[in-house]
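User: Good morning. I'm curious how aspartic acid would be positioned relative to this chain. Could you predict the structure with it bound?
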Amino acid sequence: MEYKPGQEWYKRLHWQVFIAMVVGIGIGFAPFGPFFAEHFGWLGTLFMRLLRMIIVPLVITSIISGVASAGGGHVVGRMFGKTLTYYLVSSFLAALTGLMLFNIFNPGRGYPVTDTGAEPPELATPDSLIELVYTVVPSNFFEAASAGDMLMIIFFCIVFGVAVTTLPEDPRTRITGLIDALFKAMMALTTGIIKLLPIGVFGLMVTLVDATGVGAFGNLAKYVAALGTGLGIHFFITLPLLLYFWARVSPWKHAMNMREPLLVAFSTSSSAATLPVTMTTVRQKVGVSNRVSSFTLPMGATVNMDGTAVMECVGALFIAQALGADIGFMTQVVVVFTALLASIGAAAVPSAGLVVIFIILGAIGIGDNPEAMLIVAAMLSIDRPLDMCRTAVNVYSDSCGAAVVGRWEGEEGIDAEIRG
Ligand code: ASP
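Assistant: Good morning! Here's the predicted structure, ligand included:
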């Protein structure tokens, strides 16, 4: 979403969504609520279909363009390894933080799902580690893509992206040029669909209130608390520790140098929209070389989303728990692992994190559960402020990554002082 300072408040998407939510809830509670739910609930369903429609092409183009942008050659290969190490470690820690907070808050316990007399769903989890690997490696990519099997799609795209980086310049730039263009088109489409959010949220809210009543909001508050605490821990503890130990720079100076991109991330809810500000700031104020920052940041904006990883983990487990499913150890392993992949697959535009939550729901076998849809709908209605915070965390992790890789490449002077 474009960031337009000074735009009238009612033209801003988050206000529109907020108003749609309040109106939807109000109407849902009114005596004519059920009438509205019956006649306008389809707006919500249609919106959810549009979101799900874009997942597969969005994830494919996002990952291949992110990974393949690494370029070719020996030096690039080395930087690629370092960058990927930082991304994987930081996102994995983020997902683990999400898991811990879920277990502390248990936000889904006592969620008032409609009593249809149905048994709580059995979660599909692999019995062993090798089975887990089988759920990720496709035997036929096209079959996986048409079935929307996200884990397999993501796996293929990552290895394909890496293969592209090994090609000679001519075929490599031709492939990356095409995929980049497709990715931009998918981002434009996603942004367009997200603009319909107020209408979708209205339809979803009317249905939600009709189906579950007010009780659901207590659980949502717990979900917000768990997620907010997780994002706070990652931002204020984990990332500063990584910065300190890996880059040997002062987390305070780094945060102060990064003020502007953090504010832009917060107000746009889009790492992609923030990227130009992030790149300029990391070069000029943080003091990372052009070589490292132009390599790590664009890829980071697309694939390194720590805030989103926290949210995927808390969110998916919240939904499973709300449905009354039994959440065992293996389920938690699958969720952490898929939350990591989902955060890699999420596009850097507003609310993309909630779009890809279906990857995890699919992996644990509740992707098509109608009650799960309703809960995702409820989460969507309150997603904007959470999205603002997790986008700031996403961008912050990217800049920490640039500082760490810069340091690993032997650069001096990173965050040497706070630069106005
Ligand atoms: N809005 C986030 C970003 O652009 C992605 C998300 O929805 O989690 O970084």
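The chain has a mean pLDDT of 84. The chain has 19 helices and no strands.
Let me know if you'd like a different ligand tried.
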